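In response to reviewer comment 3 from the previous cycle, which asked for concrete evidence that the modeling workflow produces usable outputs, we include below a single protein chain processed end to end. The sequence was submitted unchanged, and the resulting structure tokens are shown without manual editing.
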Amino acid sequence: MANLVLLLTCCNFYKKMQILRDPGSCMPLSFVSQWLNEISDQERFKIITYNSLNLVPLQENDFNLAAKKEYKEWIKNLTNEDSKKIHLLIQYDVDAYPERTKKLLQVNEKYGIPANIMIFHECHSREKLKKYNKLELIDYEIDYEYLKYLETKGFVIGYHFNGYERALFNIDLTSKVFIEDVQELRKHFDIKYFSPHGGVKDMQGKTNPHCVIIPPKIMKSIFWVHNGKSVKFAKTYSDGGITAKLGEYKPLKERSLIDFMKNMEPGKRYRILLHPQYYTDNYIFSEYMAQSAEWYYNLCTKYPPKV
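The workflow returned the following structure tokens.
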């Protein structure tokens, strides 16, 4: 009872303070900073990127077969020393508020944790597309110079495909958007991997991952690593859609990063995918999330929003 009263008191307080907080956020950046510090322990963890893996398509569009072969070879070639460590790949999908991604990446840089950063070429209004089937591009100001610098430090920049949405769900135009996006991004970065954005559903319920059309001319130079097809891991974690109340996502109580980390084993490899827009020091406390998952309530108690 005492905990419930405290929870409701916190909820009422944070409701009053939300107007001063960062929109779209719900999680403490300070928690992720502490977590990155912990996984910088090179005795326990080996941080990997997609560049660490031998990802080569075997035949046209057969990414799953190539991923299975790579994983089998990876296990076979694991050294005795590496079998004592947890192999961990960090992926950031930059869906919104790219300035928050930069703050998080600065923490990664501080602790020497290279990440795989998936970025759009252009970003659009999800609300306008969903309500009016209208494409309206919005600001998506990514610090390209900083990302180029991070590439020299072992970070990987990939393409976050939202082309089916930006083609207004026209499958015939999707391939054109794909190749134009990759060509533009390759003027700045070494784009070798892509991950489809979930995004808005069309009238048949299809989204970007269902409608990827890769032009043959670049088929052999880009690898599909996540969402629809995937590189292989012992287990994966994602905070995608973590604020959703209903839908196809796992129940919130089963989406604790802390619990996921507790169950990882040496000699196996894992992927943790985060959406940086959720994480700020001035985040919005979610009453729904606190009531749905004890881990979230405990996390916000330990790392409260800065007032």
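The longest helix spans residues 2-17. We consider this sufficient to address the reviewer's concern, and the full set will be provided in the supplementary archive.
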